Amino acid sequence: MDHLPGPSGVPLLGNLGIKSHRFHQQLESWAREFGPIYRMRLADRRIIVTSRRSDIAQILHDRPDQWRRSQRLASVIDEASAAGVFSAEGEEWRRQRKLVMHALTPEVINRFHPTLSAMTARLQRRWRAQAEAGQPQRLLRDLKAFALDVTIGMAMGQDQDMLEHEDNPLQRDIEFLFTQIARRLVAPIPYWRTFKLAVDRDADAAGARIHAAVDGFIADARARMAANPVLYDKPGNLLEAMLVAADMPGSGFDERMVHANAINMVFAGEDTTANTIAWLLYLLAQAPHAAARLAQEADAAPGLEHMPYLDACVQEAMRLKPVAPILGSQAVQDVALDGVQVPAGVVVFMLLRHAFALQVPLDDGAEFRPERWLEPAMKERLDDPGRKMVPFGGGPRFCPGRYLAMCEIRMVVSMLARSFTIELLPGAPPVEEVFSFTMTPSALPLLLRPRAL
Q1: Per-residue pLDDT averaged across 284-311, rounded?
Q2: Mean pLDDT in residue range 143-154
Q3: Are residues 40 and 212 in contact, defined by beta-carbon separation less than 8 angstroms?
């Protein structure tokens, strides 16, 4: 790896100085300058950055035995007392993964469908009432509140209705904590373990409030199960299933894992789905022809199962604005990536968005054109076992919430297409990509107007 090209750095510090909220863009910029695989250094941490499809496929396939979450990321997550399935490794990961996957199967999600539909209708009513009253709509905030309501409803069996109860600090605390995780990941040293700035004390306070909220969810679940012992045999949600496992002798699952995975679910459900929908709405607002075609399909479709153009819009949004443009893994032992020797302990950043652009070069790649996903030639280029675009990761550690996320996205976007037109606010500045653990829009300056049906 020492023979790879890469950006020059300064003594001791290496390539420090990257702004955390622009981290992904800097790595992609260097990839365009130095090629599909290069090296960099953050203080004493040697790092490889790759956009080669073969490298990405190998790493995703060989997790978790050959590759693990980076120790820096795992430690930052652990410090938030969220050391659940996301950061677990080895046999502990396998135990937790099996339980989480069992609670997020398509069959379980389909049973949750009526609740998801009701929550989507609640979102529609809120936006329509605001539009008819001439009130400004806070779409990004509302989407994140909706996604959090869905996750807590699905995983915890509760309806918090954060959409209407804006005084609940949980959403705000999660969003703030995400930004601090991103900042700490690129910090030269973990200074916060020795002394804390004001922002670190604020992060601790936000974390404490999140923990208290999750403690309340667990206490409520325990009370439900005590009142209805049938739930021990047939738990109704992920939290109840985890509590059953924790109470079972020899399960290898304990109360600490229950708490950590409950926090994992809250974190994972709030940001990724909401940001995917937000980016799609922003792109549709700039492409009126695509928005009009989507509305026509939504009006005519008997259900979500028959909306190919909606699926094409989602795919195109995830191509241009993936919420996870980069993914990091750390080598467990010495390994070779297509001729490059990677020592154990080295972190490899995979540039997923840039890799797709290299693998499937498009003359109009900067344009939002969902039709491309319906064209036979394009479908043939994408239809391969290697899966060139991996918005939910891949291999054994692919996102367990993928099916729930896609159900949320399709239901909300189809509702929007049927009920509203989407317009850019006049004079609004361009929306920027902000990296805060996931890639979020800096703002969502859109206006929804009720459609006259």
Answers
A1: 91
A2: 91
A3: no
